[in-house]
Each structure stands twice: as structure tokens, then as C-alpha cells.
Amino acid sequence: MDLHLVTYFVAVVDHGGITKAAQSLYISQPSLSQAIRTLERRLGVTLFDRTGRRLELTEAGRTLDTAARRILADVARAKAKVEAVRTLESGRVDVVTYAAFSIDPLVTLTREFRDRFPNLTVRIVAVDGPGAVATALRRGDAEVGVVDLSADHAPFTTVPLGTQELVLALPPALADGVPDPVPREQVRALPLVVDMGDQSTAALLADLVAPGASNIVVDCSHPTATWELVDRGAGGTVVPRAVADGQLPRTVQFSIDPPLTREYGLVLRSGRPSPAAMAFVAVARGVFGRPADPHTDHE
């Protein structure tokens, strides 16, 4: 049943006849009469008693009247919800990432986004590494991923955001005599608590790992457990400086020589992003000061 036929039917009921209803709908009287006859033919019932001067609903017409008003109300609510999403008055953006970026930059991004769009929700999906980010995007589990940009992320759209400086965070008992910056070869002599299960992280830290990984005292994929182990003196760890500042305040931080850095950014699944996802990308660019790139913009 066409929605416009439902609209025409309700208008005829409300105005008590074809003439006034046609005027309110800005259509001709013959066109409206034909539309009502089409509706009756499709339903196989007579909707109006046409014997008097004023059209009166039949029993079938009264039944349709109740259903028709419910349909139009549902459509109006649906349109309002869609409009709210379009105008960013409602909606959700699904963001996927892994442990390396769960604090920096995701916390800053999420806070800034929520400050700017308080009516929008951020759903954060945690996965085990960059490969799982790609899988989540392909499956539609998320629209936006936060990743290390050193890998190839084709065919996804990439949005570079910034560079993390990774530092060595040591418990005070292990920090005596360690120079700042600390040479990489000296890091290989220190006990470390790091995540070697993530291939991208393992590759990044390869130059800090002794032969046979003898200085990796705990291979831990859970950031909070890593921080607790370091805080209790089990070993040092290598984390972004922002993470060390916020999560490991009782450690001593050392720059690494040569510096250890990691480029990060967003990846977007194919197709036009939702309004919420587009807003998230815009906020990310604003926070990290990267200008818009015509190759990554979606018109």
C-alpha cells in the first residue's frame, strides 16, 4: 500500500469529503477521487459510504482509519529520528582499536568529540591488533578504526593524525644509573613488561629486545595489568609518553636514543561515512591539527 494513498485517505476523513481534502493536498479533485478508488480496489473493500452529502466511513474504513493514523505517526517518528541523525542531534559512531591506542589518542579523541557533540554516543570496540581492526571494518562492526599507519591499510581510507613518542618507563629501583636518553642497546639489558603478541608492536620494539627475548620478563597484552606490574617493580615498559604521564606517574621516564616513534591515524571503511563518523573525523583533525586531505575527504 503506497504511503501517499494512506495520506490521501486520512485527509478525506479529516475534511469530510473529496473537495476540501483535495484543496488541502494541493491536488485536483478527480486525482484524489481516483486515488481513493485505487486504494479501495487494492484492499478489496469499500471505505466510504457515498450515499449522503458527506462521505461516511464504512466499518472497513474505520478499521483502516485507525491503522492509517498509526502508520503515518510511525513514519513521522522515523523521519524525525533520521533527521536527528543527519543533524547530529542523535546517533552513534562505532570506533575500533587495539591496546596500543586505547589510551592515546582514543581517550582525548572521545572526550573532545563528546564535548562537541553531547547528544552522540561513542561505542568503542576492542580487538587484538591491526588485522582485527580491518576485519571489524569489513564486517560493519565499526566505521572508524584507530591504527598504526606504518602498515598498508588498502583499500580503506586513511586519515593521518600524528606521531607518538614512545618512552621507557622504569620503576625507581631500576632507574638508577640509566642515562636519559637511554641508548637502545642499554634497554636490551633491562627487564621489560610488554605485549609481544601484537605483531606491529613487536616489530616496533624489535630493537629493544635482547637475543632470545631474554629481557622480556612478562609478555602481557592487557595494558592495566602491564601498568600494575611495572608499578610493583616487575620491570619497565615502553609506552607513549602521554600514557606514561597519565598511567605510570610513579615511574621514571626516559627518552630512547634514537627516538622511538609511531605514526597513527584513522582508517575508514568504504562508502560514505555516517554523519556521526564524519563528525568524529572532523574532530580528530581539529584536535591534532592536521588539515583536510582531498584524497581522504568524503563529499
TrEMBL record:
GO terms for cellular component: protein-DNA complex. Residues 1-58 form the HTH lysR-type domain. GO terms for molecular function: DNA binding; DNA-binding transcription factor activity. Keywords: Activator, DNA-binding, Transcription, Transcription regulation. Coiled coil: none annotated. Pfam families: HTH_1, LysR_substrate. InterPro entries: LysR_HTH_N, LysR_subst-bd, WH-like_DNA-bd_sf, WH_DNA-bd_sf. SUPFAM superfamilies: Periplasmic binding protein-like II (SSF53850), Winged helix' DNA-binding domain (SSF46785). The keyword DNA-binding applies. Belongs to the LysR transcriptional regulatory family. This is LysR family transcriptional regulator.
